[in-house]
Amino acid sequence: MSAATAEMRLVHTRDEVRRAVRGVRARGRTVALVPTMGYLHEGHLSLVDRARETADFVAMSIFVNPLQFGPTEDLARYPRDLERDLEMARGRGVDLVFAPSAAEMYPHGEPQVSVIPGALAERMEGAIRPGHFRGVLTVVAKLFGIFQPDVAVFGQKDFQQAALIRRMADDLDLGVRVEVAPIVREPDGLAMSSRNVYLSPDERERARALSRGLERGRALFAAGERDAEALRASLGSALAVPGVEAEYAEVVDALTLEPVARAAPGTVLLVAARVGRTRLIDNAVLD
Fold it and tell me: CA separation (Å) from 43 to 121, 217, 271?
Protein backbone atom coordinates (compact mmCIF):
# COMPACT_ATOMS: atom_id res chain seq x y z
CA MET A 1 0.00 0.00 0.00
CA SER A 2 1.21 3.50 -0.86
CA ALA A 3 -0.98 5.85 1.13
CA ALA A 4 -1.14 9.38 2.42
CA THR A 5 -2.56 8.14 5.74
CA ALA A 6 -3.66 4.80 7.19
CA GLU A 7 -7.28 5.85 6.77
CA MET A 8 -7.18 6.49 3.02
CA ARG A 9 -5.48 4.13 0.63
CA LEU A 10 -3.84 5.37 -2.58
CA VAL A 11 -3.38 2.83 -5.37
CA HIS A 12 -2.12 3.11 -8.94
CA THR A 13 -2.97 -0.22 -10.56
CA ARG A 14 -6.12 -2.06 -11.57
CA ASP A 15 -5.03 -5.17 -9.65
CA GLU A 16 -4.68 -3.16 -6.44
CA VAL A 17 -8.21 -1.83 -6.90
CA ARG A 18 -9.62 -5.30 -7.46
CA ARG A 19 -7.90 -6.70 -4.37
CA ALA A 20 -9.13 -3.81 -2.24
CA VAL A 21 -12.71 -4.13 -3.50
CA ARG A 22 -12.69 -7.91 -2.95
CA GLY A 23 -11.72 -7.25 0.67
CA VAL A 24 -14.55 -4.77 1.07
CA ARG A 25 -17.05 -7.19 -0.47
CA ALA A 26 -15.84 -10.01 1.77
CA ARG A 27 -16.95 -7.93 4.76
CA GLY A 28 -20.42 -7.51 3.26
CA ARG A 29 -19.96 -3.81 2.49
CA THR A 30 -21.25 -1.86 -0.50
CA VAL A 31 -19.04 0.24 -2.78
CA ALA A 32 -19.59 3.69 -4.30
CA LEU A 33 -17.36 5.19 -6.97
CA VAL A 34 -16.75 8.88 -7.70
CA PRO A 35 -14.90 9.19 -11.02
CA THR A 36 -12.97 12.48 -11.43
CA MET A 37 -10.20 14.03 -13.46
CA GLY A 38 -8.74 15.58 -10.33
CA TYR A 39 -8.02 19.17 -9.40
CA LEU A 40 -10.80 18.73 -6.88
CA HIS A 41 -13.16 21.42 -5.66
CA GLU A 42 -16.26 21.51 -3.50
CA GLY A 43 -18.36 20.22 -6.39
CA HIS A 44 -16.35 16.99 -6.47
CA LEU A 45 -16.47 16.72 -2.70
CA SER A 46 -20.26 17.04 -2.75
CA LEU A 47 -20.25 13.89 -4.91
CA VAL A 48 -18.26 12.17 -2.15
CA ASP A 49 -20.92 13.23 0.34
CA ARG A 50 -23.65 11.73 -1.85
CA ALA A 51 -21.59 8.56 -2.28
CA ARG A 52 -21.21 8.25 1.49
CA GLU A 53 -25.00 8.41 1.83
CA THR A 54 -25.45 5.52 -0.60
CA ALA A 55 -22.67 3.03 0.25
CA ASP A 56 -20.37 1.83 3.00
CA PHE A 57 -17.08 2.29 1.14
CA VAL A 58 -16.28 5.32 -1.03
CA ALA A 59 -13.68 5.10 -3.79
CA MET A 60 -12.52 7.92 -6.04
CA SER A 61 -10.65 7.74 -9.32
CA ILE A 62 -8.36 10.59 -10.39
CA PHE A 63 -7.44 10.26 -14.05
CA VAL A 64 -7.19 12.86 -16.81
CA ASN A 65 -8.55 10.72 -19.62
CA PRO A 66 -6.82 11.46 -22.95
CA LEU A 67 -9.56 9.74 -24.96
CA GLN A 68 -12.06 12.50 -24.26
CA PHE A 69 -9.87 15.38 -25.42
CA GLY A 70 -9.84 16.47 -29.04
CA PRO A 71 -6.61 17.46 -30.83
CA THR A 72 -7.19 21.19 -30.22
CA GLU A 73 -8.37 20.84 -26.61
CA ASP A 74 -6.58 21.46 -23.34
CA LEU A 75 -5.23 18.02 -22.34
CA ALA A 76 -1.69 19.28 -21.77
CA ARG A 77 -2.77 22.32 -19.74
CA TYR A 78 -5.58 20.64 -17.82
CA PRO A 79 -4.84 21.46 -14.14
CA ARG A 80 -3.28 18.67 -12.07
CA ASP A 81 -2.22 18.56 -8.41
CA LEU A 82 -2.39 15.05 -6.99
CA GLU A 83 -1.07 15.90 -3.52
CA ARG A 84 -3.67 18.64 -3.11
CA ASP A 85 -6.35 16.25 -4.35
CA LEU A 86 -5.31 13.59 -1.84
CA GLU A 87 -5.52 16.04 1.04
CA MET A 88 -9.01 17.10 -0.02
CA ALA A 89 -10.17 13.52 -0.53
CA ARG A 90 -8.77 12.47 2.83
CA GLY A 91 -10.47 15.40 4.53
CA ARG A 92 -13.82 14.33 3.10
CA GLY A 93 -13.47 10.70 4.17
CA VAL A 94 -12.68 8.95 0.90
CA ASP A 95 -11.59 5.38 1.61
CA LEU A 96 -9.59 4.64 -1.54
CA VAL A 97 -8.13 6.75 -4.37
CA PHE A 98 -7.19 5.17 -7.69
CA ALA A 99 -4.72 7.39 -9.57
CA PRO A 100 -3.53 5.40 -12.60
CA SER A 101 -1.23 6.42 -15.41
CA ALA A 102 -2.46 6.45 -18.98
CA ALA A 103 -0.35 3.34 -19.61
CA GLU A 104 -2.10 1.56 -16.75
CA MET A 105 -5.55 2.43 -18.07
CA TYR A 106 -4.68 1.80 -21.72
CA PRO A 107 -1.79 -0.70 -21.71
CA HIS A 108 -2.18 -1.42 -25.42
CA GLY A 109 -2.64 2.19 -26.46
CA GLU A 110 -5.97 3.55 -27.61
CA PRO A 111 -8.58 0.80 -27.21
CA GLN A 112 -9.62 -1.03 -30.35
CA VAL A 113 -13.03 -1.65 -28.76
CA SER A 114 -14.81 1.36 -27.31
CA VAL A 115 -18.30 2.51 -26.32
CA ILE A 116 -20.00 4.37 -29.16
CA PRO A 117 -22.77 6.68 -27.95
CA GLY A 118 -26.00 6.98 -29.90
CA ALA A 119 -28.40 9.80 -30.60
CA LEU A 120 -28.08 11.30 -27.11
CA ALA A 121 -24.54 12.35 -28.04
CA GLU A 122 -25.25 13.92 -31.42
CA ARG A 123 -26.20 17.40 -30.21
CA MET A 124 -24.72 20.08 -27.95
CA GLU A 125 -21.45 18.79 -26.49
CA GLY A 126 -21.33 15.89 -28.92
CA ALA A 127 -21.67 18.18 -31.93
CA ILE A 128 -19.05 20.63 -30.71
CA ARG A 129 -16.59 18.03 -29.38
CA PRO A 130 -16.64 15.07 -31.80
CA GLY A 131 -15.44 11.89 -30.14
CA HIS A 132 -15.67 13.37 -26.65
CA PHE A 133 -18.45 11.13 -25.39
CA ARG A 134 -16.88 8.04 -26.92
CA GLY A 135 -13.87 8.77 -24.71
CA VAL A 136 -16.00 9.48 -21.65
CA LEU A 137 -18.15 6.37 -21.95
CA THR A 138 -15.17 4.15 -22.69
CA VAL A 139 -13.23 5.22 -19.61
CA VAL A 140 -16.33 5.08 -17.40
CA ALA A 141 -17.11 1.57 -18.66
CA LYS A 142 -13.53 0.56 -17.82
CA LEU A 143 -13.82 2.06 -14.33
CA PHE A 144 -17.12 0.24 -13.79
CA GLY A 145 -15.40 -2.99 -14.85
CA ILE A 146 -12.42 -2.38 -12.57
CA PHE A 147 -14.39 -1.37 -9.46
CA GLN A 148 -17.73 -3.12 -10.10
CA PRO A 149 -19.36 -0.57 -7.78
CA ASP A 150 -22.90 -0.71 -6.49
CA VAL A 151 -23.36 2.98 -7.22
CA ALA A 152 -21.43 5.67 -9.11
CA VAL A 153 -21.95 9.38 -8.51
CA PHE A 154 -21.63 12.10 -11.16
CA GLY A 155 -22.36 15.82 -11.17
CA GLN A 156 -25.33 17.57 -12.75
CA LYS A 157 -23.05 20.23 -14.25
CA ASP A 158 -22.16 17.75 -17.00
CA PHE A 159 -25.82 17.01 -17.63
CA GLN A 160 -25.49 15.43 -21.06
CA GLN A 161 -22.59 13.29 -19.87
CA ALA A 162 -24.55 12.06 -16.86
CA ALA A 163 -27.55 11.23 -19.05
CA LEU A 164 -25.34 9.19 -21.39
CA ILE A 165 -23.65 7.32 -18.56
CA ARG A 166 -26.98 6.49 -16.97
CA ARG A 167 -28.27 5.25 -20.33
CA MET A 168 -25.10 3.18 -20.90
CA ALA A 169 -25.42 1.53 -17.49
CA ASP A 170 -29.05 0.70 -18.23
CA ASP A 171 -28.71 -0.37 -21.88
CA LEU A 172 -25.68 -2.58 -21.21
CA ASP A 173 -26.97 -3.99 -17.88
CA LEU A 174 -23.78 -2.99 -16.08
CA GLY A 175 -25.35 -3.43 -12.65
CA VAL A 176 -24.32 0.05 -11.46
CA ARG A 177 -26.81 2.58 -10.13
CA VAL A 178 -25.92 6.04 -11.44
CA GLU A 179 -26.62 8.92 -9.07
CA VAL A 180 -26.49 12.57 -10.19
CA ALA A 181 -25.73 15.20 -7.55
CA PRO A 182 -26.76 18.87 -7.86
CA ILE A 183 -24.47 21.60 -9.15
CA VAL A 184 -22.38 23.38 -6.53
CA ARG A 185 -21.87 27.07 -7.23
CA GLU A 186 -19.36 29.72 -6.25
CA PRO A 187 -20.70 32.65 -4.19
CA ASP A 188 -20.97 34.68 -7.42
CA GLY A 189 -23.13 31.98 -9.04
CA LEU A 190 -20.48 30.46 -11.30
CA ALA A 191 -20.77 26.68 -11.46
CA MET A 192 -17.72 25.11 -9.85
CA SER A 193 -15.32 23.69 -12.44
CA SER A 194 -11.65 22.77 -12.54
CA ARG A 195 -11.37 25.05 -15.58
CA ASN A 196 -12.42 28.12 -13.58
CA VAL A 197 -8.76 28.57 -12.58
CA TYR A 198 -8.04 29.64 -16.18
CA LEU A 199 -10.29 32.71 -15.87
CA SER A 200 -8.83 36.13 -15.22
CA PRO A 201 -10.79 38.37 -12.82
CA ASP A 202 -12.36 40.20 -15.79
CA GLU A 203 -13.20 36.93 -17.55
CA ARG A 204 -14.73 35.54 -14.39
CA GLU A 205 -17.06 38.50 -14.19
CA ARG A 206 -18.07 37.96 -17.83
CA ALA A 207 -18.55 34.23 -17.18
CA ARG A 208 -21.37 35.02 -14.80
CA ALA A 209 -23.51 35.55 -17.91
CA LEU A 210 -24.09 31.78 -18.00
CA SER A 211 -25.58 31.47 -14.52
CA ARG A 212 -27.44 34.77 -14.87
CA GLY A 213 -29.06 33.53 -18.06
CA LEU A 214 -30.16 30.32 -16.37
CA GLU A 215 -31.58 32.21 -13.40
CA ARG A 216 -33.46 34.47 -15.79
CA GLY A 217 -34.88 31.40 -17.53
CA ARG A 218 -35.93 29.87 -14.22
CA ALA A 219 -37.61 33.13 -13.23
CA LEU A 220 -39.51 33.29 -16.50
CA PHE A 221 -40.70 29.71 -16.04
CA ALA A 222 -41.75 30.44 -12.45
CA ALA A 223 -43.72 33.43 -13.75
CA GLY A 224 -45.64 31.17 -16.11
CA GLU A 225 -43.64 31.20 -19.36
CA ARG A 226 -43.89 27.81 -21.08
CA ASP A 227 -42.87 28.63 -24.66
CA ALA A 228 -39.48 27.02 -25.15
CA GLU A 229 -38.47 29.45 -27.89
CA ALA A 230 -39.04 32.37 -25.54
CA LEU A 231 -36.90 30.70 -22.88
CA ARG A 232 -34.22 29.92 -25.47
CA ALA A 233 -34.21 33.53 -26.65
CA SER A 234 -33.82 34.71 -23.08
CA LEU A 235 -30.78 32.45 -22.59
CA GLY A 236 -29.25 33.66 -25.84
CA SER A 237 -29.79 37.28 -24.86
CA ALA A 238 -28.06 36.75 -21.53
CA LEU A 239 -25.00 35.29 -23.28
CA ALA A 240 -24.79 38.16 -25.78
CA VAL A 241 -22.22 40.17 -23.85
CA PRO A 242 -18.72 41.28 -24.90
CA GLY A 243 -16.08 38.65 -24.24
CA VAL A 244 -18.55 35.75 -24.17
CA GLU A 245 -18.74 33.57 -27.27
CA ALA A 246 -21.95 31.56 -26.98
CA GLU A 247 -21.90 28.02 -28.40
CA TYR A 248 -25.42 26.90 -27.59
CA ALA A 249 -28.45 27.73 -25.47
CA GLU A 250 -30.95 24.86 -25.40
CA VAL A 251 -34.26 23.90 -23.78
CA VAL A 252 -34.50 20.11 -23.82
CA ASP A 253 -36.23 17.05 -22.44
CA ALA A 254 -34.26 15.60 -19.52
CA LEU A 255 -34.35 12.02 -20.82
CA THR A 256 -34.08 12.36 -24.59
CA LEU A 257 -32.09 15.64 -24.63
CA GLU A 258 -34.22 16.65 -27.62
CA PRO A 259 -35.50 20.23 -27.93
CA VAL A 260 -39.02 20.78 -26.62
CA ALA A 261 -41.71 23.16 -27.85
CA ARG A 262 -43.27 23.61 -24.41
CA ALA A 263 -41.37 23.65 -21.14
CA ALA A 264 -42.62 21.68 -18.15
CA PRO A 265 -41.27 20.77 -14.72
CA GLY A 266 -38.13 18.73 -15.34
CA THR A 267 -37.25 20.48 -18.62
CA VAL A 268 -33.55 21.39 -18.72
CA LEU A 269 -31.90 24.64 -19.77
CA LEU A 270 -28.34 24.11 -21.04
CA VAL A 271 -25.75 26.69 -22.05
CA ALA A 272 -22.14 26.59 -23.26
CA ALA A 273 -19.79 29.46 -24.06
CA ARG A 274 -16.15 30.40 -24.38
CA VAL A 275 -14.83 33.15 -22.16
CA GLY A 276 -11.36 34.00 -23.35
CA ARG A 277 -9.62 30.66 -23.89
CA THR A 278 -11.84 28.87 -21.36
CA ARG A 279 -14.85 26.82 -22.33
CA LEU A 280 -17.66 26.67 -19.76
CA ILE A 281 -20.95 24.77 -19.53
CA ASP A 282 -23.86 25.14 -17.15
CA ASN A 283 -27.49 24.08 -16.82
CA ALA A 284 -30.61 24.31 -14.73
CA VAL A 285 -33.57 21.97 -14.30
CA LEU A 286 -36.90 23.79 -14.28
CA ASP A 287 -39.14 23.05 -11.31
Answer: 24, 23, 18
Task: Report whether 258 contacts 252 (CB < 8 A).
Answer: yes
Give the pLDDT confidence score for residue 151 in this predicted structure. Answer: 98
Same domain as 21, residue 103: yes
What is d(CA 36, CA 219) in angstroms, rounded to the nearest whole number? 32
Summarised one tens digit per residue, pLDDT across range 104-163 is 999 999 999 999 999 999 999 999 999 999 999 999 999 999 999 999 999 999 999 999
Amino acid at 286: L
164 and 27, same structural domain? yes
Pairing of strands 244-252, 177-181: unpaired
Catalogue the active-site residues: 44
**Among candidate residues 283, 278, 247, the one with its CA nearest the CA of residue 126:** 247
Tell me which residue range forms the domain holding 172: 9-181
51 in Cβ contact with 151 (< 8 Å): yes
- What pLDDT is attached to residue 1? 31
Start-end of H helices in 227-269: 228-239
Three-state DSSP state, 224? coil
Q: What's the longest Cα–Cα distance across the chain?
A: 58
Compute the Cα dihedral for 68, 125, 137, 24 and give only its sign: positive
Q: How many CB atoms lie within 10 A of CB 282?
A: 24
d(CA 261, CA 227): 6
Mean pLDDT estimate for the chain: 95
Q: Mark which of 152, 181, 210 sits at the end of a domain.
A: 181
Three-state secondary structure of 133-197: HHHHHHHHHHHHHHHCCCEEEEECCCHHHHHHHHHHHHHCCCCCEEEEECCCECCCCCECCHHHH
With bands split at pLDDT 50, 70 and 90, how would you rate the model's confidence at 2?
very low
Q: Distance between CA 249 and CA 158 in Å, rounded?
A: 15
